[in-house]
Amino acid sequence: MVQVCVSDEFVVVTVSSRIDCRSWLCVTDLASCAIIFSAELPGHVTAGRMTSRDTVYVAAGSALHVYALKPDVRFVDKTQLGAAARAVVFTKVLLFIYL
Predict the structure, then answer these.
(1) pTM score, two decimals?
(2) Strands, E, within the chain: which ranges?
(3) Domain 2-98's class?
(4) How far apart are CA 88 and CA 11, in angstroms?
(5) What are the pLDDT digits (tens) for 27-44?
(6) Where are the domains of the chain?
(7) How far apart are CA 96 and CA 99, in angstroms?
């Protein structure tokens, strides 16, 4: 499974392995066309979204991983969920995670 999120400055790609329960998150800078960050995530990525505030939410396994893209790419938080998420949806004030 592959998911792609695109903003004016970044392309965020998640790829899940077909062989084992691992996934990878890669962040590419559009100006330089270079991968500026990569991380391995436990479990298959089932949902992901990028906000307009340059934050990425990725559901992998039964956890929600949060990464900030500015001023530099960094891990922010991990929240355990009751099950694997099927979708991550935003409104102007709320984040919904569908299990």
Answers:
(1) 0.85
(2) 2-6, 10-16, 22-29, 34-42, 45-50, 55-60, 63-68, 74-80, 87-90, 95-98
(3) mainly beta
(4) 18
(5) 999 999 899 999 999 888
(6) 2-98
(7) 10
